[in-house]
Amino acid sequence: MTRVAILGATGYTALETILLLLRHPHVKITALTTRSDENLHVSQVHPQLTGRLDLHLENLTPEQIGERADCVFCCLPHKASAERIPALLAQGCRVIDLSADYRLDSPEVFEKWYGVAHPDPERLGKVPYGLPELFREQIRGAQLVANPGCYPQTAICALAPLLAKKMIRPNGIIVDSKSGASGAGKSLKPHLLYCELNEGFSAYGVGVHRHQPEIEQVLGKVAGEPVDLIFTPHLVPMERGILSTAYSCPTREFTQEEVMAALREYWANEPFVRVVDHLPNTRECRFTNYVNVTARIVKDRIVTVSCIDNITKGASGSAVQNFNILYGYPEDTALI
Amino acid sequence: MTRVAILGATGYTALETILLLLRHPHVKITALTTRSDENLHVSQVHPQLTGRLDLHLENLTPEQIGERADCVFCCLPHKASAERIPALLAQGCRVIDLSADYRLDSPEVFEKWYGVAHPDPERLGKVPYGLPELFREQIRGAQLVANPGCYPQTAICALAPLLAKKMIRPNGIIVDSKSGASGAGKSLKPHLLYCELNEGFSAYGVGVHRHQPEIEQVLGKVAGEPVDLIFTPHLVPMERGILSTAYSCPTREFTQEEVMAALREYWANEPFVRVVDHLPNTRECRFTNYVNVTARIVKDRIVTVSCIDNITKGASGSAVQNFNILYGYPEDTALI
Amino acid sequence: MTRVAILGATGYTALETILLLLRHPHVKITALTTRSDENLHVSQVHPQLTGRLDLHLENLTPEQIGERADCVFCCLPHKASAERIPALLAQGCRVIDLSADYRLDSPEVFEKWYGVAHPDPERLGKVPYGLPELFREQIRGAQLVANPGCYPQTAICALAPLLAKKMIRPNGIIVDSKSGASGAGKSLKPHLLYCELNEGFSAYGVGVHRHQPEIEQVLGKVAGEPVDLIFTPHLVPMERGILSTAYSCPTREFTQEEVMAALREYWANEPFVRVVDHLPNTRECRFTNYVNVTARIVKDRIVTVSCIDNITKGASGSAVQNFNILYGYPEDTALI
Amino acid sequence: MTRVAILGATGYTALETILLLLRHPHVKITALTTRSDENLHVSQVHPQLTGRLDLHLENLTPEQIGERADCVFCCLPHKASAERIPALLAQGCRVIDLSADYRLDSPEVFEKWYGVAHPDPERLGKVPYGLPELFREQIRGAQLVANPGCYPQTAICALAPLLAKKMIRPNGIIVDSKSGASGAGKSLKPHLLYCELNEGFSAYGVGVHRHQPEIEQVLGKVAGEPVDLIFTPHLVPMERGILSTAYSCPTREFTQEEVMAALREYWANEPFVRVVDHLPNTRECRFTNYVNVTARIVKDRIVTVSCIDNITKGASGSAVQNFNILYGYPEDTALI
What is the ipTM for the molecules in this complex? Predict the structure, then answer.
């Protein structure tokens, strides 16, 4: 039985992590922390959990967390995560960080895109990127895992095979992504109100979204050379799901069959990547840990379409998958 | 007072046309036709119209329509439109065709994309494309107007200024579009069921959607040279609205200010095109005849974002706008 | 041309009022006030209005408002309305108050349900309740009109005919109502976030909602005796629309035909009340000023079902209807 | 390991049953039948199941089913179920029938409400009603279980405690229920289209819905006397969830605390019934097997509010719960 603490337990990814872990036969959730709603019972914050988890939210020190938990799922915002994680590691905890803090290798790139100095810059570049589909071996022995971003997972799962096999050029790639509203979290912002978001569709963060350098960094490692792309996120009037449509330039002429075969071959052993012939709908992955990927040849481009549930595979599902790898449980435990 | 008939009165664009025309001070709706629900009162098909329009759906001959109406809004599917319109023109009616039948100039292109021989091929190439923002003068004197497609309007309003001013290259353009479900009409298809479409997002018709040649043809006229683009439509879990994100290559380096100024200058006199600084949301155009357009420079591309209500500006609103031009009414009558 | 000011112009009912009045041929909007977003252009708050209304939000004194406007639509919250309206009346303005402040006749009842002392108690009981369907003559000569609540309109339009005709008992009535989220306004409350409200349905305010005494008061006047009912509101995951299902006890046995005939007879001359045979859907009234009503006999009860658009007929549409009555314009001006 | 067949595998309750059983450590799904989509792979009908279940839909005889499966979940429509179940029972299968066919005790009542003669009338009255919360012991030894209706479960869980304890009168009860659209199944009906159902709310089946006699029958058994109620269903623009607001007359004056205590006491040992203090939202039960119940005293009535996920607890979750009881597995297996 592994004892688990969840930091920042009021948000959507924390709730999803709890729901998944409640199904895990080898996990006991022992602590939930918060910085703001101290002493509330978790069912007051997440009424879905009524009768399912009898814990209060607490404002705990790293020492207290270290006494209670073997593994910590950190659901704090960026910067807040990296301010607390070093002390947790010092306590001997393993940490799966769902924030963006340890995803980028360079403190300078972090500061440029996140607008703050990184609180723990020395560790950057040494933390495995928690996408088991690419970095399973590094994850296996890690004490800290940087759980990947939601958008990046869709782009990476579609483009990594084609870059690894040198089938597409590493530049001029366009990733046009669409996400449900849960990706924005539970914050009280006017544009997240039902009556503002419902029945509307918009682009946001055009050219300035923080997931762009994350995608470029990971795909650059896969390609073995710098990858340059344009990333445009959009907000869809739905709760869960991300779909990314990516446009890339083939290095020579390929048939659609060749592209599909490359995707299938690359992901052949991955239990959570499904290469499908049809154009996938985010619904097919909703509340699951699956990534669906397909590709089409259109004129002189390869168009890939890939989708996930942004809260499950995009955050908490990957986190549990990483947890299973860290602790040697079957990788799909609690994820089917 | 202009007497108006609406052909194919059971669908969404017909309903919207009726709702707009009920506000028009110079219109009397005198006939509604159908091929299937004959003899039903219009309020049985469209309960919204209860107490607002006292007409039955009828299966009328062109002669009967010609006796009753000066102007016909044809809301029939493609092919069915072009099978009936010649006889209506022979009756002296003016016709605004909301189908795709007279939009493409070439019978061969039509047949390639629509999979059927065109029923009235001689007329192709002589019918004005009913986007007043570009073709107002040709529309003014026409007897038949080809009302433009919904997706094309968003792409055209964003890209026409940049092509006309030779600011972008006419090839390598990517138009990634997203539409609400009303664009698919009222047909009984499983993927249009609430429980299949709700909370899901998907691409469809990748590389094979019929609006691609329509966009290319119209933009080609504006550019004065062939335009080549990739068009990818997506289905958004909402009712109304289309947003298109287009990626094009500038012919030289431009600042964002220059691109925005070009958009503003080009559309300066158009009452229904709003060039906006912010990233627009389809909600802002919902139930209106407006097109919202903006642009950003991202790396080496110009990214434009444009949106409309696919049923209003995208179909019935443009149709009423064309009607106003045809009959000399102020162009925004019934559209504010 | 009537000059109109709108107080509290940032909310949903203000926006809807503006949109309706933009279609009104005899209205010029001359002032928009706010207590918080001073100096913003209205299009920054309501991007839908870009290019349609060139006014800034201002923090104006009653004198300034009186100089600029003949009629004031007051979209302020309760209490704030009654604090400002006396000064506006003193300036000679006519005022249509969309808040609840002048709906109840008794300062004690107001204080009990709204939890604050009424700022202008002497005027209570002298202000006509702005439901033209019942109080048109009192409205006609008024300087101040208390625009009716959204839920009450649905309950009143269904039950008033049956109470007036003594067909149902004035007690033991149950009004089970369901509203879209726009009724809760634009406030930043967690339960109004898209991801909290979407795909969920709940009751709220059971037994304690402020519209209960309002419904009882108005129906009591119609019945000529006290009316006692239970009112239960629910929140529907949609934007607009209220539907009320009411259960009442007939005073003797009636056929369904008799009940329907009574409804039709009572509302025969009302342009905005539609007595329909079918079970109405709020969609049929969406974005309109119509009320749809029907009735069924089930066992020993009369079950009525009635619906409106809560923002149009439920607030701004009725306000414009009242405005038209006050100024002698055709009652449906700007409402079709 | 129990071998399970699912009859009528194309619908929503079949899909949900499959998804739940895929998590069940002691179940192997061995057959999926259909009457219409023979030979399709299940992932073609339910793309969510891609990579998760490798079975084709087949048109199997009872003998073939009997060879392959120990237990049959019958997801066929009413009448079709009772036409096939006797042969399955003869094969020795245990059957959990998700249709309405064996819920009512009387063939006459069945025929009155369902409009067809019952195909297997002798068995009526001998089949346990599959609500474990009331009939666990009868279910335990049964070969056939009549899985309960979705609406009835909400009404029963709220009212059974009060009727059992004689706290409310058995007549004059009003059950005003609201359901998401998945309850209507996957049939191609116009009112189930996204653009017809979205952003609309309506009542349906007022006074004539088939769940009324089912609720009355079950509550009558609990009360030990006939129960008479009015049941009004409504359609909510969401996918999943039912909430019922019920109004009943207390037999004497009770405090709210007494009513809540009665609910808590009655359901104290039920793992899936949660008596909550707050007014519950269907979201809290979404994708779970929980029933949430609360009560309020309003004037002279007890108002109960109860909710479930109509597909999980309302159908497939209860079915799996019954399955666990039949086979001696922990009752919450695969349901957490």
Answer: 0.97
